[in-house]
Amino acid sequence: MVHLPAADDVRIPDDPTGSAGGPDQDLALLKDVAAQMLGERDHMLGFPVNLDFDYRPLADFLHVHGNNVGTPDAESEYHLHTKTFERAVVSFFARLAGDPDAFGYVTTGGTEGNLFGCYLGRERFPDAVLYASRTTHYSLPKIARLLRMDYEAVEVGADGAMDLGALRGRHRAHPGRPAVVVATIGTTTGGAEDDLAGIRGALADAGTDEVHLHSDAAFGGLIAALAPEPRPWAFESGADSLAVSGHKMLGAPFPCGIVLARTDQVETIRRPGIAVGSDDDTITGSRDAFTPLLLWYELRRLGRTGLKRRVGHCLATAQYAERRLREEGLHPERAPGSNTVLFDAPPAAVCARWNLLTVGDRAHLIAMPHVTVEHIDRLCADLRS
């Protein structure tokens, strides 16, 4: 566990020249915290982040202020940007998602991607009701409040996915209104995947074809796309927009992601020339120019083949964890094709040591790329002791 310094040790003085310690002591403090965080990498089993990366070759970019202001598809009057790299990243994910011509940009993470998708849907259908399952990402009720949309949390079935009958019934309570639906591909509580085609069918049965369907594939999108048996998750399955995380299967030192949408629909929100000479069709306008470099660098290193191999590693490790935890008598369960294993929560000290997220009496183990069978064996040894 990382022990952060006390508030007095990190207080920022009005006059640094008169403070005790000085730059050398500050660097020593930072090095100590960094060493603790690096040490924690070997015990991170419960959260959907990948720690298998090394971006130190890109350190020179920390000496400039890069800003990918406005749309990634055009230059701006600010010349220190990495939009060419951003477009390459977007192109890779657009092809993977089944629409090579899709619009997209690099985001701050899944929440911004979901906000973009819901915003696009609301602008297409201003009177729409926003629907998501009860196991959706915690950002969705907040997004509904931000966008001033009526929000319906839809019940889930035994598998943790959205109950299509419940969706049908809830929408019938809003006759004549369009729908914006967020389908979760890989819930944080167990890896369940909503049925995109089924959602469209249920809403058609309920009397509407005015639907914007956003796929929150932040966690499970790359797994669904690249598993040995790929599963529906993107444009070819009926999505109008989708979000994928960059810090999960790829890996990054901070949250980030990619959002994609059908190009013709983005015209609804595009504002010409307002972002220092660039059109703006993004949420944040001014955007970080460093993250596209990280994602590009890792994608160039891995390619689709390497990502597919990485997904296979995660699923094999999850399968191994499921077997070993069953041998320990902890009643593990895993959704088909998921890298999340739920099991009986061990003592609090073990959960803290291994960064295991617990919900009620169940713990989550998530087999990310940095997790190996050796980690699982060491966890099981701790459980026995």
TrEMBL record:
InterPro entries: Group_II_Decarboxylase (IPR051151), PyrdxlP-dep_de-COase (IPR002129), PyrdxlP-dep_Trfase (IPR015424), PyrdxlP-dep_Trfase_major (IPR015421), PyrdxlP-dep_Trfase_small (IPR015422), Pyridoxal-P_BS (IPR021115). Its EC number is 4.1.1.22. Gene3D superfamilies: Aspartate Aminotransferase, domain 1, Type I PLP-dependent aspartate aminotransferase-like (Major domain). Its cofactor is pyridoxal 5'-phosphate. It comes from Streptomyces subrutilus. The lineage of its organism: Bacteria, Bacillati, Actinomycetota, Actinomycetes, Kitasatosporales. Belongs to the group II decarboxylase family. Residues 1-25 are annotated as: Disordered. This is Histidine decarboxylase. One of its GO terms (biological process) is carboxylic acid metabolic process. Residues 1-14 have a biased composition (Basic and acidic residues). Keywords: Decarboxylase, Lyase, Pyridoxal phosphate. PANTHER family: PTHR46101, SERINE DECARBOXYLASE (PTHR46101:SF2). One of its GO terms (molecular function) is histidine decarboxylase activity.
